[in-house]
Amino acid sequence: MVLERLLVIDPEPSAWPSAVAALIGAVDMIVISPRHRLRESDARRIGSRLRERGSVLVSIGSQWPVGADVQLDVVESRWCGIGIGHGVLQSRKVTIAGGGKGAAARPRSLDVLLPGPGGAPHPVATVD
């Protein structure tokens, strides 16, 4: 990510739908964390515009009122590397559950180390 191209906005709650709508199509990805519950009609209108323009909206938190095309949730988290009262935190193992609509409708889950051995997220092999 090129931080020089990062845009951070914090509109008033009443202007929030208009601000997001203005960004759709102008940027490829919009990451939001709404401070209030969005009206369902605004969420549907934004979703329709996203599909038309090809932008991606990532909503952090549980304030999105309609079902997402893809939804990811951290369902379990455990820190690795620390002993009984001593040691250094090395990574965090998280279990991510996913689902959604259409092709993403089948529920799935994945264990990931954050960070992994090379510094990037790394899938954890499961033993069946």
What does this protein look like?
With 128 residues, the chain is of the alpha+beta class. The chain folds into two domains: 1-66; 68-128, no CATH class. 17% of the residues lie in helices and 34% in strands. The N and C termini lie far apart (36 Å). The mean pLDDT is 83.
Key terms for this structure?
four-stranded antiparallel beta sheet; 128 residues; 17% helix; 34% strand; 2 helices; 2 domains; alpha+beta
List the helices and strands and how they pair.
Elements: H1 16-23, E1 29-32, H2 40-53, E2 56-59, E3 70-82, E4 87-100, E5 108-114, E6 122-123
Parallel strand pairs: 1-2
Antiparallel strand pairs: 3-4, 4-5, 5-6
SSE arrangement, N to C: HEHEEEEE
Roughly what fraction of the amino acids lie in strands? Answer: 25-35%
Give the biggest sheet.
Answer: 4 strands, antiparallel
Rg over alpha carbons: 18 Å
| Alpha-carbon distance between the two ends | 36 Å
- Runs in which pLDDT lies below 50 for 5 or more consecutive residues are none
- Portion in helices: 10-25%
Question: Could you say which structural class the secondary elements and strand pairing correspond to?
Answer: alpha+beta
What is the number of E strands? 6
Strand order of the largest sheet: 3-4-5-6
Average pLDDT, all residues: 83
Number of separate domains: 2
Structure, briefly:
The chain is α+β, with helices and mostly antiparallel strands. The chain contains 2 helices and 6 strands. It has 2 domains: 66 residues; 61 residues, no CATH class.
